[in-house]
Amino acid sequence: MEISQLMSKIDQITEKILRELTKDGRISNLELADRVGLSPSACLRRVQDLERSGVITGYRATLDRDAIGTSFVAYMTVGLNDHTKAAQSAFERSISLSPQVRECHNITGTFEYMLRIEVADLAAYKYFHTEVLGTLPQVNSIVSYIVMGSPKDERA
């Protein structure tokens, strides 16, 4: 089934399935079926259709950043000195190689990119800011936003 066909068939039960899987991607099919009001076989068919069609693209683990030593989180906006496709591509290639960058978004507005950085501490952040991002020839400006707390964070 193509994604356009599936999207037109997303009903309340499918929305419930997606909501439950977003909360807990490891939920058993039996529990999921019970929560959404379907038989286990009907629920499994729907989940498999969602996977095959590309609506569900994968399952991820939610990590405790303190436990793995990357609890310092910052967002950065980055302005480029050249607005060409070549400059954007070069920047994106460089950023894709940086393990500190957990997210990179091309955005509209004053800046071209917003990055989510996860590192151990302020010293590691300063190193990334100065020695990694600050050395890229495409970068014209950097503005940092240090995360002090996350009262709501629904990323997987």
Verbal overview:
With 156 residues, this protein is an alpha+beta fold. The protein has 2 domains: 3-53, Winged helix-like DNA-binding domain superfamily/Winged helix DNA-binding domain (Arc Repressor Mutant, subunit A); 65-146, 2-Layer Sandwich (Alpha-Beta Plaits). It contains 7 helices and 4 strands. A 4-stranded antiparallel β-sheet has the order 2-3-1-4. Strand 2 and strand 3 form a beta hairpin.
Furnish the topology, listing elements before pairings.
Elements: H1 3-8, H2 12-23, H3 29-36, H4 40-53, H5 65-68, E1 72-80, H6 85-96, E2 101-106, E3 113-119, H7 122-132, E4 139-146
Helix pairs in contact: 2-3, 3-4
Q: Write the CATH fold name of the largest domain.
A: Alpha-Beta Plaits
- Structure class: alpha+beta
Low-confidence stretches: none
According to DSSP, the number of beta strands is: 4
- Determine Rg (CA atoms, Å): 20 Å
CATH homologous superfamily identity of the largest domain: Lrp/AsnC effector binding domain/regulation of amino acid metabolism (RAM) domain
* Helical residues, percent: 40-55%
- Proportion of beta-strand residues: 15-25%
Quaternary structure type: single chain
CATH level 1 name of the largest domain: Alpha Beta
Largest sheet: 4 strands, antiparallel
How many helical elements? 7
Topology as a string of helices (H) and strands (E)? HHHHHEHEEHE
First-to-last CA distance: 26 Å
Write out key terms for the chains shown.
single chain, 156 residues, alpha+beta, Arc Repressor Mutant, subunit A, Alpha-Beta Plaits, 4-stranded antiparallel β-sheet
